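Quick question, first post here. What does this chain look like in 3D?
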Amino acid sequence: MSHAWKIYTLAIISFLVGTSEFIIAGILDRVAEDLGVSVSAAGQLITVFSIAYAFGTPLLIALTARMERRKLLQYSLAVFAIANIIAALLPGYEFLVISRIILALSAGVFVVTSLTVVSALAPAEKQGSAIATVVMGFSAALIVGVPLGRVIASVYDWKMIFGGIGALSILAIVAIAFLIPVLKGEDPIPMRAQLRLFKEPRIATALAVTFFWIGGYSITYTYISPFLLEVTGMSEQAVSTGLFAFGIASLVGSKLGGFSTDKIGAPRTLLAGMALQIATLLLMAFAGHSVAAMFPLLILWAFAAWSSGPTQQYYLISLAPGASSIMLSLNSSVLQLGMAAGAGLGGLAVEGGSLHAVSWIGALGVAVAVSTAVYAFRLSSSHAKRNETAAKESARLAKTSA
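> Answer (accepted):
Ran it through. Tokens below.
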């Protein structure tokens, strides 16, 4: 089997993982109503997921560093299936919180491991596109999983969604056994060494870009269903259609983001995508009451936001190519912290009775990410010039001594 098919296999499984993570935003009002909690309290299920993911993933990746990659993918999916079954069968808000924590830990290990695997399988010149293909699986969760989940929650019971994901996860374990090759693990990097990476200005600044970019996105996306229902005044069917359109655009944005990274580089791709995201979020703040305006804005926003994901991951790998799994793990952790912060800040806005404000507050977060990215790319450029100068000087001295 070609490497392309192996990469697409992981992308398809990533669809399941992405659906389980993203679906809460699509059915937030249904979950809140069924559990008897407020919309902002239901929104904190995203915060719980993100915090568990952020702090648990680096630790688990360090502990499982030497484990063979295929086995690690299978084990993480087995725990993932159990977590979904808990959400489907056990009643109450508390059990759903427990399920989200277990989901976060297992999903974190799967995501980082799958991205590491595709980076190893793909040729060097196509790593950006390979990463984008797996990210495309998460985008597909927005395209199919979230809107379909919205329909299921409206007609039947939202718990059926998690039961179905749990059953399909078991099939995914079997698929990995037959389709993914055996790949050895990496030498473990202690947590202390991982944290030392934050002392490297280029890496710390690049990770800050992830935090503010996804934080701005999460402020709005966490409450997108209530926003479309209450602020825009969409019908239930229109919300499902809007989420479907959002997902299609995110798929295109993710794929083109990876393609653009390979062709014109990470800096221009990332800055252009975030600039477009800011523009669309601000327009949503002004045109939020118009159904006709919201559909194209949702499409532009999704395209812009998801074009940045594979670009940022590729850029971080390029900063420390010898520790790709750790870099991806740290990026995933910071990404989830950004999502937690965004969901929490959005929750404060909603509690204050200002659901309409989540879009322009999100735009401010992404604006901070743009300024941080400009500084990060300047640091990287200066670092590359210093290395080039040092290499030339070493070569000159070697030639002189010879």
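Residues 276 and 304 are 6 Å apart (CA to CA).
The mean pLDDT is 81.
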